[in-house]
């Protein structure tokens, strides 16, 4: 991964550039990096702010031959790659909040957005977008998110070279992706669970249609969250916003 790197000073979103590259036939493992995103996208139609010169905004192009329902597993894989890269490059102990927020000391340091192309039988490409707060200081975060967001620098107490983190992520991604293609999701699931913060805890899951309060039991073989509500009923959650109670 990272043999083809496209670097931009300013883009709307690295996801859009990666999309265009896919249509032009970009190879698997192609990376798009940007210093500034003017229309960065988050999950659930949210905006994503990239702290200029201090954050990582990266999209990675993957071309696995898998059915679309397996795609969420790649999002979890990317979360494991980021968590393990951060633990290798810093002294921090990152956690993953389902599906793919990376938290340090309970605050969000990284978000991952996966988008795919293909038809209902087979995916032709997956674009994994990774946004990481690296060198921002506390006063650089908007007031409305400072209680929930952090940067590696704030938690580590010193600046970290962004290139070191990018390199570590690419190495981890490449390693995990090879394991995934060869052995499937099970080994990735075990690693994901070793970083998971919400399992066994009471959480609130807000889906597009309802809010469910219950205990996070684990994830399925496909990567969805299993949630047991107060009446004992088990829900399989495909997409939701999770808060830990
Ligand atoms: C989230 O937590 O909501 C996901 C945030 C994903 C942000 C990254 S930054 C690089 C890539 N380009 C985007 O526009 N979004 C992703």
Automatic annotation (TrEMBL):
The keyword Nucleotide-binding applies. Its EC number is 6.3.4.15. The gene is birA. It comes from Gottfriedia endophytica. Belongs to the biotin--protein ligase family. GO terms for biological process: protein lipoylation; regulation of DNA-templated transcription. One of its GO terms (cellular component) is cytoplasm. Keywords: ATP-binding, Biotin, DNA-binding, Ligase, Nucleotide-binding, Repressor, Transcription, Transcription regulation. Residues 1-181 form the BPL/LPL catalytic domain. Biotin binds at residues 37, 41-43, 108. The keyword Transmembrane does not apply. It catalyses: biotin + L-lysyl-[protein] + ATP = N(6)-biotinyl-L-lysyl-[protein] + AMP + diphosphate + H(+). Acts both as a biotin--[acetyl-CoA-carboxylase] ligase and a repressor. This is Bifunctional ligase/repressor BirA. The chain holds residues 82 to 326 of 326 of the full protein. It is an enzyme of class 6 (ligase).
């Amino acid at each position: 991964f990272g043999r083809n790197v496209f670097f931009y000073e300013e883009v709307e979103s690295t996801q859009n550039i990666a999309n265009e590259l896919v249509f032009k036939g970009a190879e698997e493992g192609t990376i798009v990096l940007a210093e500034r995103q003017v229309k960065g996208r988050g999950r659930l139609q949210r905006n994503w702010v990239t702290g200029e010169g201090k954050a990582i905004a990266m999209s990675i192009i993957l071309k696995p031959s898998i059915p679309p329902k397996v795609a969420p597993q790649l999002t979890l894989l990317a979360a494991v790659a980021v968590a393990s890269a951060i633990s290798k490059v810093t002294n921090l102990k990152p956690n993953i909040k389902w599906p793919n927020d990376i938290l340090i000391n309970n605050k969000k340091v990284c978000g991952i957005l996966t988008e795919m192309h293909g038809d209902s039988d087979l995916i032709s490409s997956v674009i994994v977008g990774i946004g990481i707060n690296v060198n921002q200081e506390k006063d650089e975060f908007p007031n409305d998110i400072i209680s929930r967001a952090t940067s590696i620098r704030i938690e580590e107490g010193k600046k970290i070279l962004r290139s070191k983190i990018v390199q570590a992520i690419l190495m981890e991604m490449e390693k995990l992706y090879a394991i995934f293609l060869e052995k499937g999701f099970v080994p990735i699931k075990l690693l994901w669970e070793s970083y998971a913060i919400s399992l066994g805890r009471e959480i609130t899951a807000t889906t597009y249609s309802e809010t469910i309060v219950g205990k996070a039991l684990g994830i399925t073989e496909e990567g969805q969250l299993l949630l047991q509500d107060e009446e004992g009923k088990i829900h399989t959650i495909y997409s939701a916003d999770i808060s830990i109670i």
